[in-house]
Amino acid sequence: MKITPVQRAARIKNLREKRKLERELKVRDRALRLRAKKSSGGGDSAEATEKKHQRRARGSLSRDEIVKAAFDIIRVEGVEGLSMRRIADKLGCSVASPYAHFENQEEILRILITNGEKILTQDLRRAQTSATDVYDQLDAIAHAYWNFASENRHLHRLMFSASGGKLYRKSFPTLPTSYRVFLETIRRGISSGAIPHPRKSYPAIASTMWAWMYGLIVLDLNEMVRQPKGADPVKEGIEYFKRMLRVPLD
């Protein structure tokens, strides 16, 4: 495959960064060994210190390990806490090691977004099949989406935030599978007559309800709206949508 000038420049940049990181690590390791020798006055303690700071070999890492480490970091510290150096520290390897499996951090983030989309879609499919009535299905789907966002707050931010949205669109250039579940449910409701609206209106109905769900979740995640104890904002919103959807359009 022919490499474009942009790709060649990116590879050269990544290679330079790797070499720079490797040099920094060598300098740091050398400083640690010298410090250990000075503090102990002998070679045995220095050898023990060197073993203590020994890092994993690059070949001992796997892509799955790196992705899992990145996910664990995001789950606790948020996207802001993620970096290749932070991943390396967590796995006990050199900073250059993850680059043997991934070209850059963006590639890891895209995998996390793809994995998150798979989990969300599975949750929504499960909710969809938990009922036969279209309105009960919409209720279950909305609650499943809410639960996913509540249990994966930082991952949801990565998937649907302004910065993560660009990566999300790269991962899903067409409609994402999670949104398709919502879209299909509305379309079937219209086809069956349960939702007495023109067939051509189902995309607008689906996007409006999805936007409402997203807005509600973002407000909750950012603690911008205080809910009374025991309140179910999802249920309240769905009830309003049910009333509107059950009214035929002229």
Q: Let me know the CATH homologous superfamily of the largest domain.
A: Tetracycline Repressor, domain 2
CATH architecture descriptor of the largest domain: Orthogonal Bundle
Number of helices: 11
Alpha-carbon Rg, integer: 25 Å
Ends: how far apart? 57 Å
Low-confidence stretches: 42-53
What's the number of domains?
3
Average pLDDT confidence is 82
- Name of the top-level CATH class of the largest domain: Mainly Alpha
Largest sheet: none
- Look at the helices and sheets and give the structural class: mainly alpha
CATH topology of the largest domain: Tetracycline Repressor, domain 2
Number of strands: 0
Helix-strand string:
HHHHHHHHHHH
Strand composition percent: under 5%
Inertia-based shape: elongated
The percent of residues in helical segments reads: over 70%
Structure description:
The protein has 250 residues and is mostly helical. α3 crosses α5. About 5% of the residues have low confidence.
Overview features:
single chain, 250 residues, mainly alpha, Arc Repressor Mutant, subunit A, Tetracycline Repressor, domain 2, 3 domains, 71% helix, elongated, DNA-binding, HTH-type_Tx_Regulator, transcription, DNA binding
